[in-house]
Write a structure and sequence with these properties.
The chain has 269 residues and is of the alpha+beta class. It folds into three domains: 2-78; 85-149, no CATH class; 153-268. It contains seven helices and five strands, in the order H-H-H-H-H-H-E-E-H-E-E-E.
Length: 269
Amino acid sequence: MGMFLFMIGFLGGIASIVMLIFNAIKKKPKKKTLISIGLCFVLFVSGASIIGSSSKSTQSKVDEAIEKVEDEEKTTIKEELKLTDEEKELLSKSYNDLDSKGRTVFAEILEKFDDILEEEQEQFNSDVDRMKVEKEEWIQEQEKIREENAKKPENRKKDIEKAIKNRVEDGDYKNAKLDKITINEDLGSEEDGLYIALVYFTFDIRNKKETGNELMRMYSDDLVATLADKGIEDISEAAIFWVDDYNNRNLKYAYGYKDGGFYIMDIAE
């Protein structure tokens, strides 16, 4: 109906304007033509209004249909998200009793828990909250165990030895061959948990003594300085031994640790 009135008003308006021009040229009366133009304008506006209203109504229906489909999809998805029998059984346990697989399953439960059926959320919410608390306690306990293990002499020695090896590999100590690393507990110290690091190198290049001294001292200084920079504070003393095959001699650079860094205590040849 709206489109019909719109087209009648539009076409009639064009015809009336043409007739108005013709009457003006022929000098004929224009009153009826003007009335016709006015009537066509009314029809044109009415038709346009009806079309606009109809369009809005159609769009509103489309929006409602889309919203309904989305709601149905959400409902379907939520109905599909349920806890499995395995997951329900797991929620009856303590987090401390879970193995690696069980901890993975619990993580998956947490990811989907807000989307499962409300009745299941209500049923298992207290178990989930309990296991969340147990999980945090378990994580803290594991961290404490790792810290305690790291403090054990056999483990700490390996950590210090690894730090020394990493620096030698990354430091590009040319013509310096790492022979051995020995980490001993500092039994002469009144403070527990301190170590003495003994590092043995071979300087295997033809050299003058002065040049060799400069390089071996530079490598030794760099090694202990790197250990200090890494925050290793439990090495009370470090001794770097060098075998200079070309000059048939042995050297030792001895360092002590104080105030966050190493200082040279002795150079022996």
